[in-house]
Structures are given as C-alpha cells and as structure tokens.
Amino acid sequence: MKIKNTLIIIAMSIIGLTSCNSDNNQNPFLSDNDTYHEAPAFDKIKNEHYLPAFIEGMKQHKAEIEAICNNTETPTFDNTIWAYDKSGELLGKVSGVFFNMMECMNSDEIQAIAEEVLPQLTAHGDDIAMNPVLFEKIKYVYDHRAEMNLDDQQNRVVEKYYNDFIRSGAGLNEENQAKLREINEKLSILSLQFGNNLLKENSNFKLVIDNEADLAGLPQSSIDAAAEQATKDGMEGKWVFTLSKPSLIPFLTYSDNSMLREKMYNAYYNRGDNNNEYDNKAIIKEMLALRLQKAQLFGFDNYANYVLDVNMAKNAATVDKFLGEIFYSANELAKKERHEMQNLGSGDAHAEPIEIERSDWWYFAEKLRKAKYDFDENQIRPYLSLDNVRNGMFMAANKLYGITFEKRTDIPVYYAGVETFEVKDNDGSILGLLYLDYYPRDSKSSGAWCTSFREGGYDINGVWQPALIQLVMNFTPASGDTPALLDWDETETMWHEFGHSLHAFFSKGKYSRTCGNVPHDYVELPSQIMENWAGEPEVIRMYAKHYQTGEVMPDSLINKIENSALFNQGFNTTELIAASILDMKYHELTDIDEINNLDVDEFESNQMTAIGLIHQIQPRYRSTNFAHVFSGGYSAGYYAYTWAEVLDKDAFNYIKTSGDLFNPELAKSFRINCLQECGNDEGMVQYKKFRGQEPDIEPYLKARGLK
Predict the structure, then answer these.
(1) Is 129 in a helix, a strand, or coil?
(2) Which helix (H) or strand (E) holds 314?
C-alpha cells in the first residue's frame, strides 16, 4: 500500500521522537498508573507514546508465549491455556486506547502511527496463531482434556482456543500459512484505508447556504447549529450543513428545497464513490478477493460460510432464507408507504400521485406522520434533553438490576466534554467506569458505538479488573442557551449503546476467551433490548421532562409516540435488510476472476434489482461507505442486527407480559444467563436458559409492522 509523502514524514518524525525517548518512566503506558481503577492517563498520553508502547507490548507478549513454548513440563490447562489466556496484557492496554482514539480523535499523526504499526501487529498475531510449538501444546491439552479433570468452563476454553488456532491457520501447511500471513496483512491495511477514506469524505463535504430563503422548512435548532458551524468555519453570516447525522437528517426531513435535499442526499450516499483519491471501489474488490482466498485456504467455498461457521446462523443458506422472508414483507409495506406519500404529496385527492425520489422520502414521510398522527418530532425534543435521556437510562438500569452511576470529574478524559461515571453493582462493588462522548467533530467517525479501553476480567494473579467502557455518539449538540435536545432516533441510539455497556459491565468469568464472548449474531441482543424500555410510557414518564419547566411529557405526546411506532417501518426495515443482503451477496462470491472483473456499482445495482428493492429506497449503506463490512467487524455479519432483534423482541415481550416491566426475577435471569454468563455456552443455549424455549418471531414481526 502506498502512503502519502506527508504521512511518511510524520511517521518518521514520530519514530525519531520515540527513539530518543527511551525512558519508560516518561511513557504513561510503561510506567506505574496511579489513575482511578488504572484508567487511561489521557492527561499524560501523547501520540509519541504509542509506538514504543506497542513495541514493548509485542516484546512482552512474545516473551510470554516463548515461556509457554519453552516449558519442558507436560502441557496442562494451567501452564498452557491459562498462561495463554492471560498473556498480552500490556499490548491489550495500548491497543484499547489507540484504536479507540483512531475512531474518535483521528488525525494525520494517528493515521501514520496506524499505518506503521498495523502490519507489525498483524505479523505478531500471525506469529502466535501459527506458532507450531504453541499449537502442539494447545492441541495436547485439547486431545487429553477428558483425562485432566477439567470443569465445564475449562473444557469450553480449551475447545474455543483450539478452534481459534485452527481458524487462524495453525493446521495449514507452511506454504498456505505464508499465503494467509500475506492476506491478513493486506486486509488490515485495506480496512484502515477504507475507513480513512470515509472519514475524509465525511469531513470534506459542506453545504454552504447564504440565502436565508433556502432555509425554509428547517427547525430553528438546525438553523442555529448551521450558523454556529459557519462561524466555526470562518463564514460568519452563512449557514453550513455537514454529513453528520444531526445536520443531515433534519435537513432531509424538513428542508422545503428539493434541489438542496438531493444535493445533501447524494453527498451522503455517494461517499467513497466519487472517483477521487478517496474512492473505495478498488479497495472493496481487493478485500473481497483476499477474503475469498482466505476462506478457500480453510476449505470453504465462500467467505460467508467461513465467517458463519462459528455464528448462531452457521451458514449462508440459513441467513439468506431468514433475510429473504423478512425482505419480501418489508418491501411490500414500503410500497404502501410510498403510495400514501405520493398521494399526500400531490395535495389533491383527485390529482395524479406525485413521483417521489430517493432524496424526498424523509421529507414526505414526516409530512405523512403529521397528517396521520398529528406528530411532529420537534414537539418531543424539548422533553428529551441529553441529560434527561441519560439519567433515564441510568434509572431504568437501577430499577432492573440495582446498579448505580456516580459522576466523576477526577478521571482524565481525551476530549473536553467527555463525561465519566463510576458504575457500582447492587452490593456496592465496582463494575467499572463509563465514558460518554456525545457530539460530532471532524476527527470522529460517524455513527454510534460502544467499545472498551479495558474489558472487565481477572488478571494472571486472579485479581478482578473493572471494565473501562466507552460510549461514542454523534448527537445534535447544544445551541446557544438551548441544551442538547435529542430526537427519538437519537434517544433510542443512546439506550442501544448503553445496552452494550451493561453487557460489558455484567460479563463475569475467569477466562478472557469466554468472559462475555458471544457469537457475532448474539452481540446486538443486549443493546437492542434496552431500546424497548426507552419507548414504554411508564419509562418515558421517568425521564422525559421539559428542559425549561421540568414538566413531564404529557400523555398526549406519549400516545403519539406509541401510535406512530409502526410508522415508516417498511422503509426502515427494507433499507436495513437490503444492506444485509448486499453484504451476503458480496461474501457469497466464489470466483476470484469474477471479483477482479467486478464493477462495484453495477453489482450493487443488480443485486438490489434482483430482490425487487423499490427505486425510492437504497440499502442503508451503499457499498463504498459500508464501514460495518469493509472497515468494521460485520463482514458477512450485518444480518446480525436483525437476527438479534428477533431475540430482543421475544425477550422483552416475555418480560412485559409478566405484568411488570422491571420484573426482578426475570431481570435477574436475563442478567445472569444472557449478560453475565453469556459466554459459558452457545448463544441459543444461554438464551433458552432465560426464556425456556427458542425465540418466537411473532413479537419481531409485530414490532416491525410486518404482521
């Protein structure tokens, strides 16, 4: 991969700085950390500290692996599996900070460090995964596990690690291991490049308005935010709209100017597809070819089946059937929604329906919602201040699980405005720290996510280390004297990511490999289930209070939220499933030559035509900006959101029909079986321990308006 000259210079300057700074006591990663719960010392960490910390981390990890390999005693669970499970602590600490900063505090310097260290990390990982001595020791324990008097969890850890090594190339011959190493290195760099290109595309586009008439229809909060953005960009007296969701979605929803709506829409959906230096089409083709080659090394006909072999779904055929059945119903519902909007848009019951374009959907959908439900999103915003929404989810978690959240101002943070909370269990013990990063900035990736600076777990000495969890959002910021007021989608997003954090805080287990570790298509269950509580009238009354008067949201508005819950679900479900299908179709390709000759835009168009996707809807992410798949961990896995939604809707319905939204017995069972001990067995086994049966799809279909 070619690196820009400017980045090479930066990387060289960093290397020069770090080579001179040989005193480990000056590096926060390599010296004693006296911060609370050993949280990252963001007040001391500088970019120059990362490379030497990575190098030292790999050095220590390599020494730990060599100690296992050089041990002349017969391999046992303790001297092999336990020792391996607890190795790499320093490397994990550095990675946990750096790669999260790359997502939310990116810069040319950070990108240069990533391009420097990623190949080294990939090679380091491959060296371990393909270490023949280490594998033989793990294989020995695996082969003799029945004779070692292991408990159930020890057996599970042994089996998981053995399978991990097989899937990572330990069983391949030397020639194929060499091929796999090359593939892994290339994929790591391409994934980084895809994400960097998308970050550039996100930040490079700005819609500048200098005619006040072009603001017609927009809510005052959007206008004020655009004016503040213009001032920030040195364009006082104008209005600047960006591709961040808090700027983009209100513009598409409320702007009366169809030409400007189309301009914003195209800028967003065409990211990475502009035939410029940030174009992602060639990267996609190369990644698809490499992924297929990787799958073929392991005897799979396509990459999807390689990925799904360890998921709940098990194979591509199961996922295709699952998605296909949902898509048909969702697409038919979307057609009905389109028909309603076309008739509404004509303004005359006797006139010909208007033709709605893709960039018109949000605009006319909002008008239809007003007409059908007398519901305007801006009616509820004053009751959904960010602080109220956050406090509401804390209260809900307290009522469900008895946990508490105490704001801390003595924890170093990486950016002004990031909040930290200490999380305590119902017995007063520490679960960890929660970092909340709310608002967009140019250095930050779009979207919302939950991650960790350190996962909770036991160290090599059996000492518990509390989890250090980060929630990152891109919400509508405060404007003037008005605090940050969220829309309903942002409210649900916050509760969603918070659900991931509860999974992280509650996961309890002795072994890193299984503590909280679940199949990819289970991961969204803990997050999505929290969205259900967010929308319950009983819960809304707990947190939705007017930011000026303190008045609880009136029942009339709560009823409108309830009544409109199924509104636009055809669109929402269709675009989600279409993206999931597109992901699968890419990763079900079986011919390298076909991939090499692929026209990415044409392939995407053909696949969407083949399933009958209506013209007015595109997949939620087009290929060239599908970060989940090409720079995240969701390749052949985007279906997981829907798969897990079947679980979460069934689980919540089970709790709700008990007659108590906060049923203590069921909450305890869900926490233990689906969050705390979720890694103790296969995903469906753990779910059935809570539910008593496999999930019923009916609650999902009803929640999506498909039945």
Answers:
(1) helix
(2) none
**What value does the mean pLDDT take over residues 170-180?**
97
Please indicate, yes or no, if residue 110 is contained in any of the structural domains: yes
10 Å CB burial of residue 537 (0-12, 13-18, 19+) is: middle
Q: How many CB atoms lie within 10 A of CB 342?
A: 17
Residues 419 and 505 in one domain: yes
- Rounded Cα distance between 158 and 84, Å, is 11
Answer with the one of 504, 539, 563 that is the final residue of a domain: 563
Phi, psi of 161 (to 5 degrees): -65, -40
> Does one domain contain both 427 and 552?
yes
**R_g (Cα) of the chain, nearest Å:** 26
Establish whether 497 is a catalytic residue. Answer: yes
User: What are the CA-CA distances from residue 557 to residues 11, 463, 569 (Å)?
Assistant: 55, 50, 20
Three-state SS at 167: helix
Instruction: Answer whether 442's CB lies under 8 Å from 203's CB.
Output: yes
Contact 497, 529 (CB under 8 A): no
Residue 107 sits in the same domain as residue 248: no
349 band by pLDDT with thresholds 50, 70 and 90: low
- Tens of pLDDT along 88-120? 999 999 999 999 999 999 999 999 999 999 999
pLDDT at residue 351, as a whole number = 61
Q: Which domain holds residue 70?
A: 5-171
- Among residues 497, 588, 604, 677, the one annotated as catalytic is 497
Sign of CA dihedral 544, 549, 551, 555: negative
Shared-domain flag, residues 98 and 221? no
Instruction: Label residue 21 by pLDDT band (50, 70, 90).
Output: very low
With respect to residue 370, please indicate whether it lies within any of the assigned structural domains. Answer: no
At residue 17, does pLDDT exceed 60?
A: no
How confident is the model at residue 23, as a pLDDT? 56
**What is the tally of structural domains in the chain?**
3
Q: Give per-residue pLDDT as tens, 425-439.
A: 999 999 999 999 999
> What is the identity of the amino acid at 618?
Q
Residue-wise pLDDT for 243-266, tens only, equals 999 999 999 999 999 999 999 999
Does the pLDDT at position 555 exceed 80?
yes
398 and 504 both lie in a single domain: yes
User: What's the DSSP call for residue 672?
Assistant: I
Q: Which of 218, 238, 269 is the last residue of a domain?
A: 269
Q: Answer yes or no: do 150 and 214 share one domain.
A: no
How far apart, in Å, are the Cα atoms of 211 and each of 251, 416, 556?
Answer: 15, 34, 37
